[in-house]
Amino acid sequence: MKYDAIVIGSGLGGLECACILSRNGLRTLVLEKGKQPGGCMQSYMRKGLRYDTGFHYVGGLGEGQSLHPAFRYLGLLDLPWHRLDEHFDRVTVGGRTYPFAEGFDSFARTLASHFPGERHALERYAQLLSNVERTDPVKLLETGAYAYLKETFRNPLLTNVLGGASLKMELRRESLPLFTFLHGNSSFIESSWRLKGDSSLIVRSLSDSIRRQGGEIICGAEVEELIEKEGKIVRAVCTDGNVYEGDIFISDVHPAVTSSWVKRSGKMKPVFRSRMARLENTFGMCTVSLRIKSGTLPYFNWNHYVYRKPNVWSFCAEDGPVGGVLVSCRVPEDGNGYTDQVDLLTPMRWEQCRKWEKTCVGNRGEDYRQMKERMADQCVALAEEVIPGLGGRVAERYISTPLTYRDYLAAPEGSAYGTRKDFRNPLLTMLSPRTPVPNLLLTGQSVVLHGLHGVTMTAFLTCAEILGKEEIKRILKD
Amino acid sequence: MTREEIVEKVNALLSEEFEVEQEGIEPEANVKETLSLDSLSLVDLVAIIQQTYKIKIPIADLREIKTFNNLYDYIESHLPA
User: Fold this and answer.
1) Is a pLDDT exceeding 70 seen at residue B31?
2) Measured between CB atoms, does A272 come within 8 Å of chain B?
3) Residue A440 in 3-state DSSP?
């Protein structure tokens, strides 16, 4: 049996590619090494509640907005999306809270009421955000996000506030391109949404679509080699000995791992493999998932970003207590007005995990457990700046680190957002979906953009290599 | 580093990384043709030069590099002191 397309890895990008291709009549197979599909969109069950791993909120789902056509095509608009409040993100720096408002004009106006001297600069910034999809990407890729904000705004506090809702990307002033920063903010300002339920709803919806369209998903299938013949990949060999033949291969796995699978090739030269292996990875996240005592915490329909000091752009590189935290909560499903689950997220560098790099899940020792508990305590303490008494309302807590990501998702160094894009070197760090082997393509967060929005747009870009750019344009016409 | 050393090292490096015979790397031969470079693998060339010599080649300069002699010249004139 030969497939038209074989997708390796069932993260969001892999499932979306499989959904697009199977809908276009290609006989599609998804190979997943884990027990269940979903990658960062998986959730896990503890004492009757499901906890998310990588998903918290998404932007641009409203009619006429940036993600609407793609999600409509993928069948994801039918999920129970819940729109966040007008002030969807609230950034607390130095004890004061600044709201991010929905809609580009409101966004600028609201912040201008806190920074009256920056009104015109805020309007220009909002204009740039609203036009990001129509702006020359090369220029945005070659500009640093931090440098841009520093030049545009006189008040350094505003530079911190504007970066404040960007814990959902690698907030690192030395490398973050303006391209990544604007794309990562723009769609949320259009409109922001949570799911009423956990992210496995997204996985289930895409998996059902793939199967309905004649595609297959096989779990427990870990690829170890891609065999090339006459300049094309012809089959994927799995560790269990199974072999799958296909015409086109798409990898939703880290590019360094992907290129290591092509062991003998006339097309993929050592220089490409070593370039992929040398790509730097973005930092990982420590996630503290809290089960809240029933009926003790009223649901809040926005996200909090809380910083200990006005060092939003540098705290992640500094040692010491947790310096910034994203506080998100789950939409109540029974409509009682109280939330049962709160997630706290903070960046965590691989150096902080290196001590345990040789360990595996469930077997990392007492010092690892203590480190996690200490980080969780610090996250809770910081979150208490905006939710006083949070710690006293916690019934259970579950903590994951970049080590967890690495072991479940084959993400080198437990990277949360894939390979690092660097405005000082966009040519080398911004990857194309193409590889030197013409029928081996890449997708997922290391290619072009990350996040739900970025990965989805990248999936369409990858599929454009197969179906043609015109066809993808037609599909995405709202 | 002398010109001869640069030529020797670059040829050995490119021969290994791009899997081409060293004999095919003539000073006046075309870089793109000899190494079978397309727009994608051109990036690999930039990466390997940057990694080896700490020289960043901007896209505009890349267009000027046609022969191996051009490449040696570029490396020689941009080597960090």
Assistant:
1) yes
2) yes
3) strand
A171-A280-A255 Cα angle (round to 5): 115
Residues of the domain holding A424: 2-80+197-280+417-476
Residue A346: band (very low, low, confident or very high) from pLDDT cuts 50, 70, 90: very high
No. of helices (H) and no. of strands (E), chain B: 5, 0
Residue contact A275–B48, C-beta within 8 A: yes
A10, burial (CB in 10 Å: exposed 0-12, middle 13-18, buried 19+) = buried
Q: Tell me the shortest Cα–Cα distance from B58 to chain A, in angstroms.
A: 9
* Residue whose C-alpha is closest to residue A283's, from A418, A99, A160: A418
- CB atoms B43 and A270 under 8 Å: no
End residue of a domain, out of A190, A206, A221: A190
Looking at residue A392, its amino acid is G
* Beta-bridge partner residues of A232: A229
Q: What is the pTM of this model?
A: 0.93
CATH 1.10.1200.10 given to domain B3-78: yes
**Does B40 contact A427 at a Cβ distance shorter than 8 Å?**
no
Q: Does A478 have pLDDT greater than 60?
A: no
Whose tokens are 């690829």? That residue is A223
Separation of alpha carbons A338 and A335, rounded Å: 8
- Chain B residue with the nearest C-alpha to that of A432: B40
Q: How far apart are CA A58 and CA A191, in angstroms?
A: 8
Q: Length of chain A in residues, anyone?
A: 478
Read off the pLDDT of residues A205-239 as tens digits, 9 standing for 90 and up: 999 999 999 999 999 999 999 999 999 999 999 99
Residue type at A442? L
**Mean pLDDT (whole number) for A276-288:** 95
Q: Which residue has the higher pLDDT, B17 or A224?
A: A224
Q: Out of A274, A428, A432, name the one closest to residue B46 (CB).
A: A428
Confidence of residue B30 (pLDDT cuts 50, 70, 90): very high
The CA R_g of chain A, rounded to the nearest whole Å, is 22
The distance of Cα A85 from the centroid of its chain, to the nearest Å, equals 22
Residues A304 and A368 reside in one and the same domain: yes
Q: How far apart, in whole angstroms, are the C-alpha atoms of residue A296 and residue A294?
A: 6
Q: What is the pLDDT of residue A314?
A: 94
* Confidence band, pLDDT 50/70/90 cuts, at residue B60: confident
Region A55-81: mean pLDDT is 97
Is the domain of A60 the same as that of A202? yes
> With contact defined as beta carbons under 8 Å apart, do B75 and B6 qualify?
yes
In whole angstroms, give the CA distance from residue A298 to residue A91: 19
Q: What ipTM did this prediction achieve?
A: 0.82
Based on the domain organization, do A267 and A369 belong to the same domain?
A: no
